[in-house]
Amino acid sequence: MDSNFAAGRAPGVELDKALTFRTVHEEVAGPKWQSLFHYHWPAYEPWYLAEGERERPSYLECHNALRKHMPELLVTYRTLCEVAGGGDLSSRLLSLYRPPPYITGCSQAVLTRPTSTLLARNYDYPPELCEGTILYTRWNQRRVIAMSDCLWGVLDGMNDSGLAVSLAFGGRKVVGDGFGAPIILRYILEFCDTVPEAAAVLARVPTHMAYNITVADASGRYVTAMIAPDSRASIRRVPVATNHQKKIEWYAHALASETLIRERQLSILVDDDATTAERLISAFSAPPLFRHDYRRGLGTVYTAVYRTKEKLTQFRWPGRVLNLNFDEFPEEQITVRYGSRGLYG
Prior knowledge:
This protein is α+β, with helices and mostly antiparallel strands. Helices cover 28% and strands 29% of the residues. The protein has 9 helices and 16 strands. It has helices at 31-48, 59-69, 74-83, 88-95, 181-191, 195-204, 251-257, 259-271, 277-283; strands at residues 18-25, 107-113, 116-124, 133-137, 144-149, 153-159, 164-169, 211-216, 222-228, 231-236, 240-241, 300-307, 312-317, 320-325, 333-339, 342-344. A 10-stranded mixed sheet has the order 10-9-8-7-6-5-4-1-15-16, with helices on one face. A hairpin with a 2-residue loop joins strand 9 and strand 10 (231-236).
């Protein structure tokens, strides 16, 4: 991988050790979110400063960027900054405006059937850098369940309108002026109800890196948006995304991540009328979609499944399944081990 791309960001575990996933329910940001912030901040601070503080935007730049592109999110942002202690550096990081670059893997697909629509994904990343927090909030009169990143950003999640989102790295080295994708996904879940509304956000809010964002809603609509800082968003009715965009640009990453192989596998599955939800979900638990390449930071950390009509969420690991919804969200912990021989509970 390119040394200009930061791998280390979040707290977690070293290889061959345990990562504990936590479900946290706190509708208004308070002591639970504050505890998460204080727990993760010692790891986030050095990551944020890895390129030097001058490389990061000032608080005023961060605030103005949010006000320009995602103004509805400002109240929540200011609240979280206050709960975090009001520090200048932490407030700048929480904006996720022009953060350090980083890369992920990931596979994601939408399966639509007459009675159901689901968005499934594998998150491929160094497990020691994953927060492992599944956060249930109601910050803007809309309930959201999401896998957290950068303390309040979203790797994947769903809101109580049945809108589900997921991100995958776009496989390009370009870095520019924009936001980290997790805060764009947070914005979508907080203020959008449908795929067309989400697509409008993805078309106008700038991103600092290339990402493939897949969105599905309760009506069975879906799109994948290929976003990047150097081009207009390409938003198409495509149900599958891995780690390249219109063409392969970063060949080393494409080979290491097997992006084309995974895309082909998913395309075959979703194009087959005989594929059921259970068949697609099972495919995410086996190669080539489920990956054990933890040494290179490309192993699968978890599988997420979002059923948009039923508004059900599911997180999966080999031998473990966690079912959650907006009415039943027990706070619990699941410990998973990632080692040289694979993943085990």
